[in-house]
């Protein structure tokens, strides 16, 4: 069991560099399965647990995958299996994105059902509706989905009942090798969809309209490997913007693309944060009391659900009452109970949370209920009195590269403890106390690990 330890009270300043986008690189790695000739090279692939998981999925299918210096090399010319096992899909829902590529390339696939997760039930009916409309026969049973088609999939018009990111991606990938033209209506418009379309087009696909509500894919006979650089992670960027603002800091978020962060920037500006974008990133300055705002999560270009928890942390540090309405996922307020352990006093009413700013936050032992919840609790810890311990680090590792290192590079008092299960660790004991055991430490600042009597 490992945890992040945060001591509040430091103003963040300096430069932080954003890594490649998790939500781009995962579908792009899945898409590399479509390359029947030559390998794909994917640059700016963040070293996240999710990336390692999807690489394992590809290896289990027979692809040869190497990862070095944030570059992934995928040779999928020879595939030996069409089955994505429970072992990997249960670890990460995005593994399900191999279904479209496998079905269209091999004519059959068997994938473990992804199931729900901490933020909701997360059905996959729209993915399956798309595949069926393209001529696939789908069978469900014993925790697996089997899909097959006679010959190639057939292009057709598919209207998505919800603008699902994953369904848009899965269907788009399946359509690249289908016979004829596929049109996806009410498609998701996220920047990650555009990044995937660019990757597919680099492989020889014919995808048009990505980033709009209607995507048109003309199927081709074969695709080949390509070289691609993943876009910067807008959610990681937004998280550092919140971390800067909550501490009244002055931080340059290098690599942040302001165009991808429209609603986050708009809401933070409404709160009184000064945001200055340039061609290489975004500068965030917050040196006066912040104002309350109301936020409703929506599909892109609306306010991202993946920034909801971090925004809630920022609202806690503002003056007045803010309201957050979560419309994308049915159960994405699990972090509220954890915030309340820090004296936040947030109330939930159905799909709305009422956040009264200005409460004096106090450090506590809390747990990341999902990866954004974890990041948000750390942001709150940055301005809490005393020490906050954030457990559930496996969630945070899914989506943040070197979080403690990046924040401590900005001056935050944060580090990570890797704790062996049978050896308890005493956090910040009184000066006279002995540390119960020596934990393995990673991250900086190591100096803070000394008993300080805080
Ligand atoms: C790896 C990745 O890119 N993950 C992102 C992706 O997840 P993901 O692709 O899973 O999210 P979706 O856009 O599919 O889900 C949005 C909503 O649609 C519903 N739905 C989805 C599919 C379906 O077949 N039927 C259905 O009803 C979901 O339950 C949810 O309520 O987009 C989410 C919404 O921006 C983000 O929070 C995730 O970080
Ligand atoms: C919910 C998220 O991711 P995933 O869809 O991979 O669970 C997220 O990135 O916040």
TrEMBL record:
Keywords of the record, alphabetical order, are: Cell cycle, Cell division, Cell shape, Cell wall biogenesis/degradation, Cytoplasm, Peptidoglycan synthesis, Pyruvate, Transferase
Catalytic activity, EC: 2.5.1.7
- Protein name as it appears in the record: UDP-N-acetylglucosamine 1-carboxyvinyltransferase
Pathway assignment reads: Cell wall biogenesis; peptidoglycan biosynthesis
The record's top EC class is transferase
Active site feature: 117
**2-(S-cysteinyl)pyruvic acid O-phosphothioketal modification, residue list:** 117
Q: What is the lineage of its organism?
A: Bacteria, Bacillati, Bacillota, Bacilli, Bacillales
Q: Which residues form the Enolpyruvate transferase domain?
A: 6-407
What is catalyzed by this enzyme?
phosphoenolpyruvate + UDP-N-acetyl-alpha-D-glucosamine = UDP-N-acetyl-3-O-(1-carboxyvinyl)-alpha-D-glucosamine + phosphate
Q: Which gene encodes it?
A: murA
Physiological role: Cell wall formation. Adds enolpyruvyl to UDP-N-acetylglucosamine.
Q: Name one Pfam family in it.
A: EPSP_synthase
